[in-house]
Design a protein that fits this description.
mainly alpha; 20 helices; 2 strands
Amino acid sequence: MSFKKNKIFFYAFLLNWALLLGSINTTPSEIFYFGQGLDKSINALRILFPLISSFILMMIFIINLKNNFLDLIEKKNLINFLFIFYFILQLLGLFTTPDRSFTLNNIYLVIFGINSLIALILINNFYQKKNYYKLNYFLTCISLLFIFAIIIVVTIAMYKKVGIAGFVLLYNFIDPNDTLFNQVLPRVTGYARMLAVLNVAIIAYVINKKLFKNKLYIILIFLLSTLIFFVQSRGAVLCFYSLIIIITIFQIKSFLDKLKLIIITILLPVCLHLIISNDRDLHIELKEKILIEKKIKINNDMLKNIMETRSFRIVNNRTSSGRIQLWKTIIEKYEKNKIFGYGPQADRYLLLNKLSGLGYGNNASSAFFYSFSSAGYFGFVIIILINIFSCILLYNKIFVEKIFNGKGKFLEILSLYFIVFFLIRSLFENSISYFGIDFLLFIAAINALNWKNIYFNLFLKFK
């Protein structure tokens, strides 16, 4: 398919991707609130438009599948089809669970997940490598612009609530029920994740374009790295620091550049936080300032805990945030004869009210346990396979194609970073196991790297 003759499809794919991003954090039930105020009307359209685009895209896919089945399969991507099968299993799980209704509110995440996968399959089928790469580049850019916009909006909202001093102690003071435009604000962990993703993109650009001597970029990376650590989300810090170590070991050749990256992303932010955290007078002064000036409603027990503890949560808090208890509960409550699981967001179904009194939350906090609860035994195996094939892809790109040796384009380098980041994140967050920003960035990255079916070609090289 010629790009010049098919600009409509090109822009349609971009629009569809933007609509999917815009739908995040909305539900189909919000459609009924259209006309009841500007905020509610906008939220209704945010969910309605991608539902319509999903229907149109599925019709296009079915027509192409009927006419070009073998061609679509040959042009793969294998992981796309694994994810589609995984989402279908979730629908089967929901259908075979009498206690849960087969409604749009329960299946819309599956619909949007399949929408994004079909879009990437059709892009692979419609375009040759040059335009395929170009479109994937725009999809990634749209995703990063969306993240940047959310960071700005959320940062302003958080600043109004806790002030500039509050960012030193953000984990203590942000209420997970805070709303903006009639939508729940991203949790602190999600905020830290978005900061890390944006910082990873900047680091990829700096390394790819050899801009380590550019002071503006170095300062920007340092500021974002500092904010990431100050937020004290252990998951985001672990993913970000693990990726930095991998980049330092396998990609950067210059010792000075290695040292510079470690200093601005890890050493300086940690030292700065240590200085503030260990200055007890400053620490208490900041907390009192936030509580008084921002008039945060907080009960006596919470006040005592906040005032007596330091903000160095990553070191001082040696618990698993209840994850082990969550995983045990899912296994205990899972009926062993549920081959296909309980359907989308089954972790919430299994954990509802069970652990709420203990403050552990109601999500699985692991892609593996989420897949097990939502899509059963087969879904669990599929997520493992996706992780294995993703690691094979990473191995091929790093050690066979050697894209770290100056051969990789910016999008390839960034995509590789994202795959590593989200594979690590999926160990202790639902992440890529359901439709959301993690999932969209992950599958876009997989498709950007996997133009050729390397899984089988790689094995042939060892024969």
